[in-house]
Sequence to fold (526 residues):
Amino acid sequence: MRNYLLILAFLICCGCFEIKAQTPARLIQKAKTEISKEDYLSALETLKPLVQEGNENSEAVLLTGYCYLYIPGEDAKALHYLELASRFFPLEKKPSRNAIESHFYLAMALHQNYKFNEAIELYKRLLSSTKQKNLLSAFNREMAYSINALELTKNPLKYQIYALGQAINSPYEDHSPIVALDESTIYFTSNRPEKGMERTGGGFFESIYVSHWRDGGWTRAEKLALPGEYFGNRATVSLSSDGQTLIFFQNDGYSGSLYTSRYTFNGWTEPVPLPEPINSTHIETHASLSSDGTTIWFSSDRPGGYGGKDIYVSYLLPDGSWGQPLNAGANINTPLDEESPFIHPDGTTLYFSSEGHNSMGGYDIFKSELDDKGKWSKAVNIGYPINTPDDDIFYLPTPDGQRVYYSSRQIGGMGASDIYIIAFPEDDARSLAVVASHIFNPDKTPMGEAVIRVFDTETAQSMGVYRPNTLTGKFVAILPSGRSYRLEIENQGFKKIDHQFFVPLRDVFGTRQRAFYVPSFIMEKE
Fold:
């Protein structure tokens, strides 16, 4: 839900409503305390005796509707109770605070239930009911969401959606998927029950889980074994192009920071925080590395931006340190929050989430593209129904652009949020392909010291320089499809390898075929 709802929640918890009876008063006060801790399920249980049909307490009804607004998948119940509350507190000529707030929440519930025209009309009534600047700002912002939603829902995108199945999804929150470039491994965040990770007040801390693509399916997800002891939330953020460096978010008391761990022959290394100036005394929540590892995009609420959380970019300097972060600019950032940047392997397309621009409610997914002059285009909403009236935050398209990994709450899901794949139709042109191969020593052990260069055979243009994964000998390149290429493999003391290959157009890359594999190579000694 929107940030300023927390302000209104605070007003509720401080006693915005009249208390008419002693016994209900104690229950209502208990529920307010639970709401202040965001324990909405407990608050609903506390309020339950006060919302019995035919004997409803008006304040309890309003608080019940408010709680349901904060519980995913309960939009219909929120609408039911807030419609009832609005009848208890009508918008008269000089409406009470209770009436204004009950109708504001009702308008939000109408929006969440796709009743955008009704929500707009109610916001117009609310705008004429008060002169308080903070409320007027909230009403205008929410009405803008409904107006945007009306426009975006006129032209829905065409796509198919597939759940990743029980090997990965659970009845709990499963979200923030990050995937290796060849889609052989997926990491994600889940709050499924785990011994020793119980939170005070109920529930479990979030942890990172991993699954691998084997024999045409995903292996059962297991908790990622990172060294060291830690008691708190950890959440997936980004993965390097070679699949060996994991970036994740970790709570550090109030602020929270971005950490990295690298996979070696001895397993994952001890997590270390990203150095300044990436991490700061403020909150950094998401980050994305470029495919060559020389650029990092991240979100932060540090001062000096456009407002709230902004997206910043930093470049790796010759001495191995990160340069001073640069704000991504007004075409991307707004006075509201921006989150979860993802720089596509093409290096010219940035996906991110924003509460601003022409969002249809809370966070929507947007994209911006880099032009020939080095400027980022004005952010474009990627469209409905990928974007919804709810928050839509984590969006991970594959390098060839055919599929998107994302988390969502869908009818028929396993419980809370699940992880899905969006597949675009055959006539949706996508130009990039994932190309992979393996390089081995004469004894068929992985060769990690080789240098691989790829050239376009028609233009002789260099398409990149790559090195194999030291653990597997595998390298991955992102190349335009429908083209011919020449591969050069060199390593001191070994014979040079030249190999030509053709990358077919996108119809080769179905959802079951993760990458275009060039034959493996065994280098011979000179």
